[in-house]
Structure formats: C-alpha cells, structure tokens
Amino acid sequence: MRRALLATVLVVAAVLTPAGAAAAPKPAAPAVTPLSDTLLDPSALYFVSYDGLVNNDSFQQDGIVTYAGYQYATWYTGSRNAVIARRALHGATGTVREPGTATSAAQPGRRVRPEHGRTAWETVVLPHKLTVDDSHNVISLGISPQDGRLHVAMDTHNSRIHYTRSVAGLASRPAAHRWTADQFGEVRRTLGGAELGNMTYPRFVITPEGRLQFSYRTGGSGNGVNELAEYDDGTWRKLGAWSSATGAYTGPNGVVSHTRNMYLHGLTYDDSGRLHASFTWREGNWDVLCHPGGLTNHDTGYVYSDDRGRTWRNGAGQVVGSTGGDPVGIDSPGLVADPLDPNHGLMNQESQAVDSAGNPHVVISYVPGRFTQCVSDYSAQRAQFGRTFHVFRGDDGGWTKREVPIPPNHTQRTKIVFDSADNAYLIMPRGRIVAASKASGWTDWTLVFDRPSMKAFGEVNVDTSRVATDGVLSVQYQQASSGTTPSPIRVADFKLG
Hints:
The chain is mainly β. Helix content is 3%, strand content 39%. It contains two helices and 30 strands. The strands form eight sheets. It has a five-stranded antiparallel beta sheet, with no helix packed on it. The protein has a four-stranded antiparallel beta sheet with strand order 1-30-29-28. Strands 2-3-4-5 form a four-stranded antiparallel beta sheet. A hairpin with a 2-residue loop joins strand 11 (223-232) and strand 12 (235-241). It is globular and about 60 Å long.
C-alpha cells in the first residue's frame, strides 16, 4: 500500500483517419462521480481546538485506509472512546445518499446496515478514552504487511503515546478474523516496547518492500525534531532524529531565531522506493514577525531519501542529512522549493502527493502579498484572503508554483490526490473538490464537486491507498456542530476519472 499512485496503462481503441493513420488518443480528463455517503457514527466527539477537530486533521496518516480489500476508519465517539470500523469493499457501487437520510446508525460495537449493496461497517471499541480536548491528539492507523497487523497510535501532544496493535493476520486475512476488541492488545504508553518519550504527530508509512515505519516529532512547536522508527519481524526500533531544531534564521525585520521545527506536509514513497518529504519551518522566536498575530512558518522545503529514510538529499541529489546522525537543518543547502517570508500566514502540514513519474506535488496556502505584506490575524485573514497554491517538481528538477483560482474560503487545509491518468484533485475544506488535468499542465483548475448539504466542518481525511488500488476517493468528514455537541461522522465515496 504505497502513497504514490500506481501507474495504469490506458487501453484506447484506435480510431482510423481516412488515410488509415491512427489518431492520437485523447488524454483522460478529470471527473468526479459521487457513489455513496455512509454513516459511521451519529454522535462523534466534537470540539474545536486549534481551529480543527480531533477526528479530522490534516496530519493524520492515516485516519482512513484500505488494505487487502477492506477499508478501516477511526474516530472518537461522543463518550470519548477510540473506535475503529471496517468494511469489505467488494461490489462497492451505488448511488448517492444525501447526508442525514440514512436509516441506520453506527453505534460502537454494533454492525451497521449496508447501504446501496455495500458491506456493512463493523465497529470495535478500543479500551481507551481521549484524555484531553486537544485536536492534536488524533488517531492514526498503520498496517504491517510482514505480519498483517493493524497498528493504532493515538492521543498524544507533547506526551507519551497510546499504542496498540492487532493479532497477526487481522489486516492481511480480514475475512478469517472476527472484528472484536479481543483481536487487539492492551493500550500501552510505548511503541511496542520502544520508548519514544513525549511526542506529537504520529504517522505510519509503508516502504515498497513492505516494512512499516513510524514518523513523529519530539520537542514542541518552534523547537522540535522529526524522528523515525521502523517495524521489522514483530519489533519496533528507533532510527533516530532526522531534522534539526538548531541554527540561525534571520527574519525580514533583522531579528534572529535560533530554534524551530520542521512541519511535514507528508511522507510519501513512490514506486521506485524513493521517500519524499516536503515541509515548512516554524521559528521559535515570534519576534521575527511583523505582527504577533501571524504565524512564524516560512518557506516550502523538500528532501528525499533513497534508503528508507536513513540518508536525506536535496532536490539536486546532494546529501544534506542522516537519520540518527547529522540531521537536516535550516543551514542545509538547496532545501527551498518555494521561498516565502513568515509574514503571510503560511499554513503547516497541508498535503503532498507523488505522480506516476515520481515527481512530488505539494499543496500550500497563505495570504498573498496583494492583500497584505503583514498578516496580523492569521485565522481571520486566512479565511478572508487565504489562497491555495500548487507547487510541483518537473522532470527537469525545477519547481513550478501556480495559484489555484478557487479560494478555500476557510482557515483549514486541503488534500491532494491523483487519478490513474495523473489528473490532480484537491479536496478543500468542507469537502469541496477542484481538479486539473495533466494534459493542461495542471492549469485548468475547475470546481467539480460542491455540496453544502454535507455540512462538513472543515478539514477532511482522505483514503489515498484506495485511490491507488481502485480509483475511488473516500472522504471521511464530520458534520459541523456547535460547542461540544456531538455530530455525525461519515464517509463519502467518489469515482475518479
């Protein structure tokens, strides 16, 4: 299950011209066909923290994931319980069901009636309740192909992890296992015996040869480092830190910051085995800003690794860091893909994807200079003036940035995926989808889906693995509520291309 999309051969019937020559096939255009909208839980936990929800946050890798013909989704219930649901995906076709019209409800521990011929969602309640109202404390799922276990990391923000994993084979032979709580081990405060200390942003990623890796940050905002661990033969081991918090950065006003952290837009393996990482820096000294109401995020950077995250190179191929040794830092050469000073409300941890040619694409958003050169209220000004940008690396190694002409109209972040023809789709806040064709060089951005009746709060989770395997985009979203009133959490399915 790779994050890079699988290349697909397009078989096109030849159309002969009068002269007998074969006409060139027309490139596939982006398209979105709604399939269904299913209910996971009518009363999922709801509170707004850091302008987001704990059940749908951009840095969840993954909150919804597909493996071996089954799809898994996770969230916290209104009673704060951590829950995982699964469904078989065979025969996954149907027509749209508008949100709010479902006749069945996803109660934890119960089987949910199937909709439109789909297999029912089954839910399992884990022996853990969310400890604090903090949207950082998401649940992330990972699967280890070596032994078919489902791994769960949750409820951590500068604190020790809560972790559990399933019995062997639960994910690789799902039909052979009951979906019950006793298929999972106890929730522990270490990663299977590996002590990580206080950490944030748990992410799982699978290498092309089938090893499960775990990414996390130690330290805090403005003074933290990214670290990696790897699962092999049933055992987790730490690989160490690969980004540095130290070094000097001088803001536009001449103020120097001496600490920072690298915020990842994602970790993505392509089909060749290259691991791509795009990021932005956040400075620890807020005096680098023109106004304290802004964000100290600056620049979009990029590195890659061809040895499963042990050695890191810049876009030119120069070694700029090593994991557990000399980490990537602010002074490392050739990191910047798109320069931007810290006065534009640049958002961290947005999204990245890799096309079939192995080129990285990054989605970023900020307030362009035509509106202001000094963001003084990042939340209000991002909602009013924020714009989304598509930043991608070409075959020649050069970077291109283009503004997406459809504004997000929100403070929150956007996801990017590709279909089998390398058309790009941006899933914006509230579940709106805009798309651009590869044939245009990703210039013809068009709004292809917008349904306000979904009532999606803001950020959504997407199942990138299912897009790669069967061309269906699954969007997990929670409906907007008020205060701390629980609200429905759902999964909308779309056929791409």
